[in-house]
Write a structure and sequence with these properties.
The chain is built from 1 helix and 26 strands. The chain is globular. It is an enzyme of class 1 (oxidoreductase).
């Protein structure tokens, strides 16, 4: 999914200097952003106070939206570099096209994972005949310097492993959790899991003390380490945890995001992640001139133009403002 802000603001991310080394409970409120003509999302990362969780650098939550009489998601072809995109649905369908030739309909709890590497472009849209409701999350994972120039690729994994406990099913999106490992490609120590809890569940989820974590609420009423987390909000948890208490007041859906704190400092502007202003400027120029990012074939419409670059210098800094 694209960052469609008309005036894209650079997010200065990464570096270990601002990682919270002990458990915390920091509730992050979303910023509302309109995508395309009809889809509104709640943006949790980058946030005013926190830019990353492990290598997770961008989190949008959208829906549930009733799109029975609407076109639904319509995101024109746009570029990416230096990152992976994760498409994750609870309801609805999204048709993915990209410049490697991929064409795939993604359905609830199926993993669509796109690795941009040096350059890719893609579009996302609700199919013409689509389910009534659309509800999901779009996430980006920053690629480390050793892998950010690899060839682009798209992976589709309709079957994913799960960890179960009384009242809990944890589906592995990326990385490993309690002995289960996702088939999705990763390039840093990371975890992403979809947590489905039934009403009345009270469990403890095993964690890695060296990882930092956050939990995004997708639906229902749940308490994370004693903190009520409402749908569309995210609780940052810091590091130093070996387990996480979860309690559901109703059937609830959560997403667990975590990983080793990302050591490199980054510049994230529009749909690009780089290390220097020169890289970002070149990527924008290449997209606008039709170079490098390839062509998305089959999309009925034009490409998304890049916004103007900011007048202030782009400099990589820390993880929080």
């Amino acid at each position: 999914m694209s960052n469609l802000d008309r005036e894209a603001v650079p997010a200065l991310c990464g570096g270990r200097g601002f990682v919270v080394a002990e458990p915390v409970r920091e509730l992050l409120s979303p910023r509302r952003v309109t995508l395309g003509e009809s889809t509104e999302v709640r943006r949790l990362l980058p946030n005013l106070g926190r830019r990353m969780v492990g290598a997770w650098a961008f989190v949008d939550h959208y829906g549930p939206d009733d799109i029975a009489d609407e076109p639904g998601m319509q995101v024109p072809p746009h570029p990416h570099m230096g990152l992976q995109t994760v498409s994750w649905l609870h309801e609805g369908e999204v048709l993915h096209r990209d410049s490697t030739g991929s064409l795939q309909t993604i359905r609830p709890r199926e993993l669509g994972l796109m690795t941009s590497g040096q350059a890719i472009s893609h579009s996302e849209e609700s199919p013409r005949q689509h389910p009534r409701f659309l509800h999901g999350a779009q996430l980006w994972v920053a690629l480390p310097d050793t892998h950010r120039h690899i060839a682009p690729r798209f992976e589709y994994h309709p079957e994913l492993p799960a960890v179960t406990a009384p009242g809990l099913t944890a589906t592995l999106i990326l990385g490993s959790l309690d002995g289960a490992t996702s088939p999705g490609s990763t390039y840093t120590p990371i975890v992403g899991a979809d947590l489905a809890l039934t009403s009345g569940t009270d469990v403890r989820l095993p964690l890695e003390p060296d990882f930092e974590y956050a939990v995004l609420s997708m639906s229902g009423e749940a308490h994370v380490d004693g903190v009520p987390v409402l749908p569309g909000s995210m609780l940052y948890l810091g590091c130093g945890r070996s387990e996480l208490p979860l309690r559901a007041e109703s059937d609830a859906g959560l997403m667990l995001l975590g990983g080793e704190p990302f050591e490199e400092e980054l510049i994230m502007w529009w749909n690009f992640i780089g290390r220097t202003q020169e890289e970002i400027e070149q990527a924008r120029e290449d997209w606008m001139s039709g170079m490098r990012f390839g062509e998305v074939k089959g999309y009925d419409g034009g490409r998304l133009p890049a916004p103007a670059l900011p007048t202030v210098p782009l400099k990589p800094r820390g993880r929080v403002r």
